[in-house]
Amino acid sequence: MAEQVTGRPMSYRYVDENRIGDHICYYSDLRKMRAHYPAWDISKSLPQIFDEIASSWSKRLTAV
Q1: Which of 24, 51, 52, 54 minimizes the number of CB atoms within 10 Å of its CB?
Q2: Dihedral of CA 34/44/52/17: which sign?
Q3: Angle at Cα 39 formed by Cα 44 and Cα 51, nearest 5°?
Q4: pTM above 0.70, yes or no
Q5: Cα(48)–Cα(5) distance, integer angstroms
């Protein structure tokens, strides 16, 4: 998705170890969250989040 948003190939490498500060696990079932916070909802789509991140980085890099 990052490549689609930026139009550039991503450079990455896989390292089979946890980074300091990474979450040990991640829960994607939001039923409990919604039960405890019924007024809460997801307000941005994943593509929108990627667009915002790419736009922010683009602005930072051109400001240098």
Answers
A1: 24
A2: positive
A3: 5
A4: no
A5: 10
